[in-house]
Design goal:
Layout (H helix, E strand, L loop, with lengths): L1 H4 L22 E6 L5 E9 L11 H14 L6 H9 L6 E6 L7 E9 L3 H17 L4 H16 L5 H14 L5 H8 L5 H11 L6 E6 L14 E5 L1
Parallel strand pairs: 1-5, 1-6
Antiparallel strand pairs: 2-4, 2-5, 3-4
Helix pairs in contact: 2-8, 3-4
């Protein structure tokens, strides 16, 4: 490092200022009509969690990581994949994700693609899984499986000097402490069902979801208005 970059001179520059934003959640159902489509693209989400650089060692964020993976993360054992893909065969690619940042409020997003004639059923199944994660008990076995998956997957993110440097650069950019990865590892085993339920209720608001549907409504299994008032964005 010294040999390659030792002659570089650092500049005392301040990071750009991101003004505070007022978060206003308002649910809606929106449709973009594509009459030649034989599949439907579904996106839903709302503004959600923001990392707090003034209080970075926040157990709530680690609980959110577990919730993120448990609900619709990478593993095929996540609830959305297990129910909607494996059990019902409604969507090959379904997932959810929390996008987070220290500079501005993050977002919670669910994405899926399905046949036109299973559009409403797929949306209703997603909403039901969101309701369950907020309201119903979560089994400790399920949580332990998710935590083990996260521990193993996180190890692959720091298994080379390049990945370690990239991780430290990200923390520096976000204004987080450089030992934040260690904090996540130390806190992860302590996350329990109540912690996950609490962040699910706080950061997943079903009534505030903005739902976007792209497809041919003539071929939907039910009218999109079954879910509520529909806004036509494009024809």
């Amino acid at each position: 490092m010294e040999e390659a970059f030792g002659k570089w001179k650092s500049l005392n520059t301040e990071p750009p200022h991101f003004p505070d934003t007022e978060v206003k959640r308002k649910g809606s159902i929106n449709l973009i009509i594509r009459e030649n489509a034989n599949q439907t693209k579904i996106r839903m989400g709302h503004i959600s969690f923001k990392l707090n650089r003034d209080n970075p060692y926040n157990k709530e964020y680690v609980a959110l990581l577990v919730l993120d993976q448990l609900l619709g993360g990478q593993a095929f054992t996540s609830r959305l994949k297990k129910k909607i893909r494996s059990e019902l065969g409604l969507s090959y690619n379904v997932f959810s994700m929390f996008w987070t940042s220290c500079y501005y409020p993050g977002s919670f997003v669910v994405s899926a693609s399905t046949r036109s004639d299973t559009t409403i059923k797929t949306i209703q199944c997603i909403l039901e899984e969101l309701r369950k994660i907020r309201e119903e008990p979560i089994q400790e076995k399920e949580i332990e499986n998710v935590k083990n998956f996260l521990m193993n997957s996180y190890m692959s993110r720091i298994d080379s000097p390049e990945k370690i440097i990239a991780r430290l650069l990200y923390y520096e950019y976000e204004g987080l402490p450089l030992d934040y990865f260690q904090f996540i590892f130390k806190t992860l085993p302590s996350i329990k069902a109540n912690d996950i339920r609490e962040v699910a209720r706080k950061y997943i608001d079903i009534d505030s979801l903005c739902i976007l549907v792209i497809g041919n409504p003539r071929n939907f299994d039910k009218p999109l208005s079954t879910l509520g008032k529909v806004n036509i964005l494009d024809k």
